């Protein structure tokens, strides 16, 4: 694939956007450097690979230096080959020795070094087609759940999704307009804004329907002003409010406890009432059946699996077989390597699932997922809304759109 051989691998501890420790990897191939880190989740899925080994980042660094480095120095800059070696070295099915975050950082750093050695942008290095589709940005406007503290909503993310715009830059601008408009509306209504959560979304002590009403109003106003078509969505991260003992979803602020059947009805009711374009993890991560039922009973809405699928090929195959959802979150560190994440995206695409390449709540300042989304021709990219680490990815897509020039066309979401 490439003539450059890896000459050195370095690992160090850095910090992510939450101030938590993270690993950074340098892959050096004689004259080029590929440097990358990995994000971390707060509302992680049960079926994700382990993010770090026992002993955390310190142990991961030791493992890279003592075990990984001697095995990959001398190998060509070939991501697939390196990913294979990482699996061979780790031997576990959940990357428990190396950590999925470490594996992803090595995989990505190899790809960056490969792109640098050829002097091409990362998206074109990773791309297996010559399509020039730019994804729509899914933005987080009001946030609660595990990404916020203080007076907050029960649901983790109230989202805005542009579904028709001429360019990426105008779609991103509309999202930021909605974020600002929501703050203005909240101020007018005298609602206290507690601050911003991990992804820049407003943290507010609102009940679910109150938050959706404000978001709907903001979206229709910004849509009228900009001409960008906007839908609203939710990441319910339902596993985080599911009580396994009691078998209920607990909505503290809404003061409700809802059983599985009731949750299905509630989700469908919200989808109809607020014309939701996107619902992520509406039920907990083991309920393929409830996912299928919601998918069958809604139309013109993307029903997306994050904790349900965890970017895992076997789980997305099961989802496809059971018609659970019609969209899938692609978070490479959930599965550990670029090769595995790419395979999940490919299988999903063949089954007409919409791929949503996604950031994590704890992020690096890197912008590689913007390239990955374009390379995988994912119609949507989930990026939060504000903060340097979120902006890095949004701004990179503006640059990619510029590089693609006249060839650039916005992806089709199908809703
Ligand atoms: C999610 C993500 C990102 P986390 O649930 O989709 O918004 O959160 O990274 O905490 O899993
Ligand atoms: Mg999610």
What labels would you give this structure?
415 residues, alpha/beta, Enolase-like, domain 1, TIM Barrel, eight-stranded mixed barrel, 13 helices, 18 strands, binds 2-phosphoglyceric acid, binds magnesium ion
Beta percentage is 15-25%
Give me the CATH superfamily of the largest domain: Enolase-like C-terminal domain
Could you give the distance between the termini?
38 Å
Number of helices: 13
Mean pLDDT across all residues, rounded? 97
Bound small molecules, by name, code or SMILES, are: 2-phosphoglyceric acid, magnesium ion
Helix content: 40-55%
Q: Tell me the overall shape.
A: globular
Rg calc:
21 Å
Description of the structure:
- With 415 residues, the protein is α/β, with parallel strands linked by helices.
- It folds into two domains: 6-120, Enolase-like, domain 1 (2-Layer Sandwich); 126-410, Enolase-like C-terminal domain (TIM Barrel).
- Helix content is 40%, strand content 20%.
- It has helices spanning 56-72, 79-90, 100-118, 122-126, 168-188, 208-226, 260-273, 288-297, 313-321, 332-335, 338-350, 368-375, 388-404; strands at residues 8-15, 21-29, 32-37, 133-134, 136-143, 157-164, 195-196, 202-203, 229-235, 242-243, 248-251, 256-258, 278-280, 302-305, 327-330, 354-358, 380-382, 409-410.
- It has an eight-stranded mixed β-barrel with strand order 5-6-9-13-14-15-16-17, surrounded by five helices. A three-stranded antiparallel beta sheet has the order 1-2-3. Strands 10-11-12 form a three-stranded antiparallel beta sheet.
- Strand 14 (302-305), helix 9 (313-321) and strand 15 (327-330) form a beta-alpha-beta unit.
- Helix 2 (79-90) runs antiparallel to helix 3 (100-118), helix 5 packs across helix 6 (208-226) and helix 12 (368-375) packs across helix 13 (388-404).
- The longest helix has 21 residues, at 168-188.
- The chain is globular and about 60 Å long.
- The two termini are 38 Å apart.
- The structure holds 2-phosphoglyceric acid and magnesium ion.
- Residues 41-44, 157, 199, 235, 237, 306, 358, 360-361 line the site of 2-phosphoglyceric acid (2PG).
């Amino acid at each position: 694939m490439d003539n450059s051989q890896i000459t050195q691998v370095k690992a160090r501890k850095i910090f992510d956007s939450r101030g938590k420790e993270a690993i950074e990897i340098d892959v050096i191939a004689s004259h080029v450097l590929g440097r990358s880190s990995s994000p971390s989740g707060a509302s992680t899925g049960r079926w994700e690979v382990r993010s770090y080994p026992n002993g955390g980042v310190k142990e991961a660094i030791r493992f890279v230096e003592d075990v990984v480095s001697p095995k990959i120095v001398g190998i060509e800059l070939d991501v697939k080959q390196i990913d294979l070696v990482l699996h061979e070295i780790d031997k576990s099915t959940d990357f428990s020795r190396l950590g999925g975050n470490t594996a992803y950082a090595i995989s990505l750093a190899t790809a960056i070094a490969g792109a640098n050695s050829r002097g091409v942008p990362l998206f074109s290095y990773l791309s297996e087609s010559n399509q020039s589709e730019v994804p729509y940005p899914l933005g987080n406007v009001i946030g609660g759940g595990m990404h916020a503290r203080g007076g907050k909503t029960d649901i983790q993310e109230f989202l805005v999704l542009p579904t028709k715009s001429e360019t990426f830059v105008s779609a991103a601008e509309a999202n930021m307009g909605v974020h600002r408009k929501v703050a203005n509306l909240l101020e007018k209504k005298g609602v206290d804004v507690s601050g911003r959560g991990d992804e820049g979304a407003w943290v507010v002590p609102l009940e679910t329907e109150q938050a959706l009403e404000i978001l709907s109003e903001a979206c229709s106003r910004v849509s009228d002003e900009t001409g960008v078509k906007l839908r609203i969505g939710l990441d319910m991260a339902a596993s985080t409010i599911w009580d396994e003992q009691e078998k209920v979803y607990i909505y503290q602020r809404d003061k409700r406890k809802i059983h599985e059947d009731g949750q299905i009805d509630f989700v469908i009711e919200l989808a109809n009432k607020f014309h939701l374009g996107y619902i992520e993890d509406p039920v907990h991560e083991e309920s393929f059946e409830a996912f299928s039922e919601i998918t069958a009973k809604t139309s013109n809405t993307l029903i997306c699996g994050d904790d349900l699928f965890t970017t895992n090929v076997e789980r997305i195959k099961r989802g496809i077989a059971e018609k659970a959802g019609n969209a899938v979150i692609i978070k490479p560190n959930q599965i550990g390597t670029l090769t595995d994440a790419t395979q999940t995206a490919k299988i999903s695409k063949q089954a007409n699932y919409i791929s949503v390449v996604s950031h994590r709540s704890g992020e690096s300042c890197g912008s590689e997922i913007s390239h990955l989304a374009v390379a995988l021709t994912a119609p949507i990219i989930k990026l939060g809304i504000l903060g340097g680490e979120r902006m890095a990815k949004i701004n990179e897509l503006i640059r990619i759109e510029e590089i693609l020039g006249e060839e650039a066309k916005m992806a089709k979401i199908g809703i």
